[in-house]
């Protein structure tokens, strides 16, 4: 059964089977576990949290995200508030590295640096990170659940770089082998801006990318 057929079959089911694992686990098979939006345009179009409930799906998702960075020197993983905490912490545990939470403003009781941004829905927000966790030259893998318009990830990149951390560019003048990872990176203007400049990893197979870009 094709990945597309799996997606249709799973999305039409109100329940998920946490025991079933396909005989052939091609990259992205676990995308079929995600649940569609049933609450309207004020919400994201898919909910990946159902994927996280599946033990093998979660493991394979993290493995696929980290595969492009095999052999790269990663000093720390940073996850973006809030769903990026799940994948980021899982990636950090797999790599045996520390994890840094990049928070929405107003939650940290220590000295921080802040960055305004617009999220996928166009809402104006501010994110912040503690100033004592990133030292100059620290190589950071930035992780979020989804990159839609790119505004949230660009703000996180700005925070890391302002503190002297390194997020890998595609053609670096010096070795900087860390970057950006998300389940999906849409080919929006902001998504393309990130992919053109930074080393990126995501889980969507090329033949499904147009469907994700069109939120189908």
From TrEMBL:
Enumerate the spans annotated as Phosphoribosyltransferase domain: 71-164
One Gene Ontology cellular component annotation held by this UniProt entry: cytoplasm
Which compartments is it annotated to reside in? Cytoplasm
**Can you cite a GO biological process for this protein?**
purine ribonucleoside salvage
Catalytic EC class: transferase
Molecular function (GO) terms for this protein are: adenine phosphoribosyltransferase activity
| InterPro entries attached to this UniProt entry | Adenine_PRTase, PRTase-like, PRTase_dom
Which pathway does the UniProt entry assign to this protein?
Purine metabolism; AMP biosynthesis via salvage pathway; AMP from adenine: step 1/1
Gene3D superfamilies listed in its UniProt record: 3.40.50.2020
Its domain of life reads: Eukaryota
| Enzyme Commission code(s) on record | 2.4.2.7
Q: Which SUPFAM superfamilies does UniProt cross-reference here? A: PRTase-like
Q: Which reaction does it catalyse?
A: AMP + diphosphate = 5-phospho-alpha-D-ribose 1-diphosphate + adenine
Keyword vocabulary terms for this entry: Cytoplasm, Glycosyltransferase, Purine salvage, Transferase
The text of the family note is: Belongs to the purine/pyrimidine phosphoribosyltransferase family.
Q: Which PANTHER family match?
A: ADENINE PHOSPHORIBOSYLTRANSFERASE, PHOSPHORIBOSYLTRANSFERASE DOMAIN-CONTAINING PROTEIN
Subunit-structure text: Homodimer.
Q: What is this protein called?
A: adenine phosphoribosyltransferase
- Give the species: Zosterops hypoxanthus
The taxonomy runs: Eukaryota, Metazoa, Chordata, Craniata, Vertebrata
Q: Name the gene behind this protein.
A: Apt1
């Amino acid at each position: 059964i094709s990945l597309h057929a799996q997606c249709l079959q799973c999305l039409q089911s109100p329940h998920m089977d946490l025991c079933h694992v396909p005989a052939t686990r091609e990259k992205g098979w676990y995308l079929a576990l995600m649940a569609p939006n049933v609450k309207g345009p004020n919400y994201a179009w898919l909910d990946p949290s159902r994927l996280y409930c599946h033990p093998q799906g979660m493991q394979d998702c993290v493995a696929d995200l980290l595969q492009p960075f095999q052999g790269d020197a990663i000093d720390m993983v940073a996850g973006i508030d809030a769903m990026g905490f799940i994948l980021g912490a899982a990636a950090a545990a797999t790599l045996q590295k520390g994890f840094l939470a990049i928070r929405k403003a107003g939650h940290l009781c220590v000295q921080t640096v802040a960055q305004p941004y617009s999220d996928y829905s166009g809402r104006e927000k501010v994110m912040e990170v503690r100033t004592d966790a990133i030292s100059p030259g620290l190589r950071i893998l930035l992780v979020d659940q989804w990159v839609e318009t790119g505004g949230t990830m660009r703000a996180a990149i700005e925070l890391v770089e302002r503190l002297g951390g390194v997020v890998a560019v595609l053609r670096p003048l010096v070795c900087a082998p860390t970057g950006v990872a998300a389940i999906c990176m849409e080919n929006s203007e902001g998504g393309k801006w990130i992919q053109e400049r930074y080393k990126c990893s995501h889980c969507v197979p090329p033949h499904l990318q147009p469907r994700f870009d069109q939120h189908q």
